[in-house]
Amino acid sequence: MRASAFVYPWDVNGDPAAPARIADLGVAQVTLAAAYHSTRALTPRHPRHRVVTVEHAAVLYPPDSARWQGRALRPYESGDWAPGDAYGEAAAALADAGLPVHTWVVLAHNSRLGAEHPHTCVVNAYGDRYPWAPCIAQPATRAYLTDLAAEAAVRPGARGTELESLGWYGLAHLHAHDKTGGVPLGDAGQYLMSLCFCPDCRAGYGTQGLDADELAAAVRTALEPVWRGAAPSDGGWAGVEKLLGAASANATRAWRDDRARTLQEAAVSSVRAAAPDGFRILLHADPVSYHCGANAGVDPAHILAVADGVVVPCTGGAGLLTPFAEQAGDDTVLAANLTVVSGMGGSPRTLAADAARVRDLGATELRLYHAGLASDGDLEAVRAGLRVG
């Protein structure tokens, strides 16, 4: 199967050996970050550094000043972790090594945006803001994300893009020194703690026949026994309905699903309008539409009618592929995302068997996370696995 490795520009820039080393893995392309969130990344082979600290979400190229002139919400430029046109420099080096480059674009995940523009954040039923999670119901935020998608995705020479976090973000973040796991929330509790009560969402619930104040109070009441450890909050969507009541739960989901679906449509259309013919657009996706996070919750039939395919997390098991495979057409790209960094829970030494398993479940391609973070031993296992596969 065709495989692509995820890479950051700082994995390549300043390391002349990096492009050939990545090509030697046996991958057919590279998915290179063009817009990314804050992180702290290991660079185990780089001749100049071992740890790169990305202080805030940023684009890794010079943004178009004309596009963003006079706009309050605009992309942040990167600091010394990715100076100048870091994306363009890395893309050129990878292309010279014979590797087609696709962009990797993180959208609705931006802590600096939330810190500087608090009104853009998701606000939970207790009034707590989530700075990392832009509310995708707000018109100005939607316009910003749609334009950012087009600009960051369609970089010179790119053959396609993979759009991450194109949907709702919520409580779960793995942010800083995260201390939110003291009470197991389960699927249902995570949903209730991710419901947004900003002014736009409060009005949106009204269009679904809900009173926002009453809904917030109902969420707090439903979660009270969960905080005490006296009631479970798992059970998938049935658990949400049990905690909140079926009518209210489904009304909130109708509002949120509509905001996510229409944003995904707008962003993909914006990318297509800017892209050359043959440019492929994939979304990092989860087949359960109420799920939040980097792999946006989607309706499989809908998203596969909008985009060219999806990137699906498969490290913990490949079951999430099946709902997409059931809706896939002959040209649909179903990319199974497998972590190949042992220290991050990956299993590079079983790559060949894992690739065979996801192929049987409908995957057409592989995504390997992450060529820059992996040890030499992990990369050697990837080479061996791709030779077999």
Which key phrases capture this entry?
single chain; 389 residues; alpha/beta; 8-stranded parallel β-barrel; two-stranded antiparallel ribbon
Could you please describe the fold and organization of this structure?
With 389 residues, the chain is an alpha/beta fold. The chain has helices spanning 9-12, 18-23, 65-68, 86-96, 111-116, 139-153, 186-194, 199-207, 212-227, 236-244, 246-274, 300-306, 321-325, 351-360, 376-388; strands at residues 2-7, 29-36, 39-42, 51-54, 58-59, 101-106, 121-123, 129-134, 160-164, 280-286, 296-297, 309-313, 333-339, 365-369. The strands form 3 sheets. An 8-stranded parallel β-barrel has the order 1-2-6-9-10-12-13-14, surrounded by 5 helices. A two-stranded antiparallel ribbon has the order 3-4. β13 (333-339), α14 and β14 (365-369) form a beta-alpha-beta unit. α6 packs parallel to α11, α7 (186-194) crosses α10 and α10 (236-244) crosses α11 (246-274). It is globular, with a radius of gyration of 21 Å.
Entry summary:
This protein is an alpha/beta fold. The protein has helices spanning 9-12, 18-23, 65-68, 86-96, 111-116, 139-153, 186-194, 199-207, 212-227, 236-244, 246-274, 300-306, 321-325, 351-360, 376-388, and strands spanning 2-7, 29-36, 39-42, 51-54, 58-59, 101-106, 121-123, 129-134, 160-164, 280-286, 296-297, 309-313, 333-339, 365-369.
User: Share of helix among residues?
Assistant: 25-40%
Number of strands: 14
- Give a quick account of the main beta sheet: strands, pairing sense, barrel closure: 8 strands, parallel, barrel
Straight-line distance between termini: 7 Å
Mean pLDDT: 96
